[in-house]
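Reviewers asked in the last cycle whether our approach scales beyond single polypeptides. To address this, we selected a multi-component target totalling 166 residues and predicted its structure end to end. The input consisted of the following lines:
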Amino acid sequence: MSTNMPPSQSRTELIEAAWTEFVTFLRQSGARITSSRKTIFEHILRRKDHFRADEVAEALAHGRNRVSRGTVYRTLALMVEYGLIRQIRDSDTHVHYEQTLGQPHHEHMICEDCGAFIEFDDDEINRLLQAACDRIGFAQNTHRVVVFGRCATCQKKPQKRKTHHT
Ligand SMILES: [Zn+2]
Ligand SMILES: [Zn+2]
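The resulting structure, written as structure tokens, was:
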């Protein structure tokens, strides 16, 4: 275990309640309910970072409760479908995920040099997007804003030469 603080009781209760509801969803989807899925479910809902599927697979590949890569990928897909995880694309090929259980709404800035994910929230952006929806008569459920560029640290490093295919 790499975490310093014991998980708070409320977080554990929140995860247990979410698991009970997820089991209902699994049943309705005709998916199997297994201890491996529970292991993956808990691991993901305790993560605070932006992660790739293979990072989850790697984290759960060893030890007594190890789970197979295939089970990780299938369970991830089910959790996305259920709405407990959202996908954040940082390029056409690399998908990052984050869990959303009890997490406040936020947007992302992604550094294209070092891959840093920076979270921010902005009332003005939220207000403008809602105004745009009102104008068009669109009922907003949620929104995502992703800004691509270079973080403050990378701006101080010498600019990398871009590779051009000609
Ligand atoms: Zn950076
Ligand atoms: Zn985030």
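The beta strands are 85-89, 95-99, 107-111, 117-120, 146-149. We regard this as preliminary and will revisit it once experimental data from Aim 1 are available.
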